[in-house]
Amino acid sequence: MKRSRLPAVTLVLVMVFFYLPIIILVVNSFNEHKYGSAWSGFTLEWYVHLWKDADIWHALRNSLLVASVSTVVSTVLGTVAAYALDRVHGKLQKFHNGLIYMPLVMPDLLMGMSLLLFFVAVGFKLGLASICVAHITFCISYVAMVVLARLQDFDFSMMEAAYDLGANSWTATTRVLLPALAPGIAAGALLAFTLSIDDFVITFFVAGPGSNTLPVVIYSMMKHSRFMPVINALSTLLLVVTFVAVGSSQLINNKKGTDLP
Amino acid sequence: MLRRLKEWLLSIPSLAWLVFFFLLPTLMVFVIAFKPANLLGDIGEGWTLSTWVELGNPNYPAIVWRTLRLSFYCTAVCILLGIPFSYCIARASEKCQRWLLMLVIIPFWTNFLIRVFAWKAILHPEGILKHVLVSVGLATPDTMLLYNEGAVLLVMVYTYLPFAIMPLYAAIEKFDFSLIDAALDLGSTVATAFRRVFVPGIRRGIQTAILMVLIPALGSYVIPDILGGPTSEMLGNKIAQRASTDRNLPHAAALSALLCLGVMLPMLVSTLVLRRKKRGEP
């Protein structure tokens, strides 16, 4: 087949399209110019502003608190759900399976809206607790998917072997099953933590007064185009954090991968 | 018996949680759409159809139409860019493929809001793109790059393109390219081979890509809110306004119910198409 040049050109242009905005953002976080239309000198002023902003520190604390609670609860629920989905079959599990899948395809906006209506209807006070409930709800599905993938590779005859060697079901679960699933559970927890820290849309709907998380604060700054260079600085810091976290988790995973048969 | 009990106990925690905090709230959207609002911004007593009557307000059809139009354009552009892009990745060497896929994913490790903001800074009246366009004479000083449908569409494509690339790549990577050679040997033109052999061959991938882009696009809210103006509002903006600033929850619920149906329709169509296809095959 005659090779057309079109695909290669598209590839290069799309890659530029993907990276250019992010590169401009990072460069502008060090730019003295307020709107970044030209380079007017190197500065760390915006980072200093950021350091002094009490709202941001408060929101960061909220974000970390919510993410920690949601990660722990959704990891436990998601792992148990994955085990049930893998081991048990029947009508109830079909329904369970559907319930796990649905939140993955539901637009965030609808999920946030329906949870808001639910909280108002039952009289649940909006605040950090309602944010945690919402985050746990969407994280369960992701954790369950990741752990399920790991479970499908697990050889359950290992459990039989443990029983034959005299282990009771507690010992077999904690000494054989859980260690084998650990990388999957850790990956699921990491995903849940990231999703929770990153979420804006659902949080926006279910947050009450004084319970702003970091994305909610960033949003209100963005919306009014206030402190644009400060948001650049904050974004750059978040970028660095994400890169280090994802990069190191990838490294850990790769190392584990080579150790295992 | 004990076994059944154990199985039951294992499914209960997540099942109960999702029934309570996912299924029930979703059903509630449809119920609350038929409730009146009260002055406190809560849900009133009794039942009413007035919310639905208000949706007849000429404002809404325009917004619904715009939501559909922008989502369709976004899906079309993502598929049109995604096919050659994924083709290029799929035909590269295996090591190259891994690198290229990584490069697609990396920008999307960053927070979604930050990516939208990066574009706002670029398109801003004082931003870099305007500066460049004016200096090469492609724009006048009062050209507005922000706050219009074009800006919204551009950033929607930026956000959802990777969702199209992944399933398209998976399908193209499995496609047997000797079929194209066979078609060409049999006298077909490149264009016909593309249309009659390649596209049907990666149908499944195209279908998944359409769903992966169309569904979140229909539910867009942040992008039109940050980059669009009053003339480029989408259904998502209206829902958020009714839920927060105007605080009319039944109204927000009715609009959400509409969106929910709009999202379910493409999924249903795709399932039906797949089922018919399966039955048609021997």
Task: Give the SSE layout.
The complex is a heterodimer of chains A (261) and B (282).
Chain A: H1 6-28, H2 45-52, H3 54-87, H4 91-105, H5 108-122, H6 128-152, H7 157-164, H8 169-198, H9 201-206, H10 214-223, H11 228-259
Chain B: H1 2-32, H2 50-54, H3 59-90, H4 94-105, H5 112-123, H6 128-135, H7 149-174, H8 178-185, H9 190-201, H10 203-218, H11 222-227, H12 235-243, H13 249-280
Q: Any idea what the radius of gyration of chain A is?
A: 23 Å
What is the alpha-carbon Rg of chain B in Å?
A: 24 Å
Structural class of chain B: mainly alpha
Which word captures the global form of chain B? globular
Structural class of chain A: mainly alpha
- The number of strands of chain A is 0
Q: What does the main sheet of chain A amount to?
A: none
| Quantity of strands of chain B, as a count | 0
Q: Which bin fits the share of residues in helices of chain B?
A: over 70%
| CATH fold naming of the domain at 52-228 in chain A | MetI-like fold
Order of helices and strands of chain B: HHHHHHHHHHHHH
What is the overall shape of chain A?
Answer: globular
What does this 3D model show about the protein?
The complex is a heterodimer of chains A (261) and B (282). Chain A is mainly alpha-helical. Helices cover 79% and strands 0% of the residues of chain A. Chain A is globular. Chain B has one domain (32-280): MetI-like (MetI-like fold, Orthogonal Bundle), CATH 1.10.3720. The longest helix of chain B is centred in the N-terminal third of the chain and has 32 residues, at 59-90. Chain B starts with a helix and ends with a helix. At the A-B interface, α1, α3, α4, α5 and α6 of A face α1, α3, α4, α5 and α6 of B.
